Amino acid sequence: MLDLYRFGYGSILLEKLNRFHEEIAGTMPNHSIEKYQLYMYMGALFNTAITWIQNGTKESEEDITKFFCTMCGISCEDAELDKIERYEE
User: Fold this and answer.
1) Which residues lie below 8 Å from residue 54, measured CB to CB, with a gap of 6+?
2) By CB distance 3.0 to 4.6 Å, which of 9, 45, 64, 86 could disulfide with 4?
């Protein structure tokens, strides 16, 4: 993922994340202000993940997940931290 980002494919990765989340969240009316929340979360998740990986994943998966959830106002219990797989570069 990091190599794709470094070679300028970050926008493609983010677009794929957006489409994936749209499929999971379902469709929203175009006039719904709530649709922007989806893109806000995906952009935040993408940038957090890229920065975390660039910095050598020094923080644990659990800590970075808890931080992200807290910043987004998401309950950490909903994140199922026990199912996180370790990223290996």
Assistant:
1) 2
2) 9
Q: Is 13 helix (H, G, I), strand (E, B) or coil?
A: helix
| Residue of 4, 83, 71, 8 whose CA lies nearest to 41 | 71
What SS3 class is residue 56? Answer: coil
The residue to which tokens 């797989």 are assigned:
85
pLDDT one-digit tens code per residue, 1-59: 788 888 888 899 999 988 888 888 776 666 778 778 888 888 998 999 999 999 999 99
Structure tokens at 21: 């989340």
